[in-house]
Amino acid sequence: MFKYDADTKRYGAEHHPFTQPVVEDIDKIEDAPLEVGSYTYDFVMDGFEAGGGGMRIHNADLQMRVLHRLGFDDQKANDQFGFLLEALEYGAPPMGGFAMGLDRVCMLLTGSDSIRDVMAFPKTSSGSDLMSAAPSEVSGAQLKDVSLRIL
Prior knowledge:
alpha+beta
């Protein structure tokens, strides 16, 4: 479920921060995060990930514990994921899924190195995502990841 980044000296999400941890491992989140498994899966074809998925956290308290382990304080968690945490407070059923990676196939067909080169994002003409309240402020590290800078 978690990986340790020696450069930043903090834990990160192996799949994504909304992945359901294995029930038997939940008590290890704070003290032994590298021992926590998750309900995730990948479909690999000819050495390329062609699809994948997993089960999602459907409990607000558990989601906040995971975010805390990833270095989020309450304010930062609510700033970035308040829409999700609020929705989970109303009660969400267990949810999971599997998606084939059409974006990955397009990446291979165009000879691109990244699915970001072929992904249609964002979904509105204004450049906003109404569900996640994006765009929001981005960190210097995030800008560096996509080779951008603010002028």
